[in-house]
Amino acid sequence: MAVEVRATPLANKIIEELPRRSRAAYERFEADLASRGCAALAYRLSGDALEHLRVVHLTGIMRVIVAFESAAVAYVILIGNHDDRHPPLDIYRQLYALAGHEPPAQAGRDKPPCCDNEAG
Description:
Shape: globular
Structural class: alpha+beta
Largest sheet: 5 strands, mixed
Mean pLDDT: 85
Order of helices and strands: EHHEEEEH
Helix content: 25-40%
Strand order of the largest sheet: 1-5-4-3-2
């Protein structure tokens, strides 16, 4: 089943400004997401506020965060580097700031699978 891929205005701005190599990697990912849906993603985030968000490693430390409106529509929410050395620029810190939520101290770093094995 084909998935329509959309992006938030913030994600669109980031996509437009990606360097050529990262942009090419993103375009390959977007085509894969459109064709395979959730199976194109690596894992979902854990925690009450973010458990419906999925992640893929694009290149190096660059991540793409995706949410599904339905099985047929996916939204690219945010694209950026996962870099603990520069907390204000870290994609997960940015995500929490956008959500107005901080991870609980016991959140850990679980990476549960994206897709439900039974429902896909």
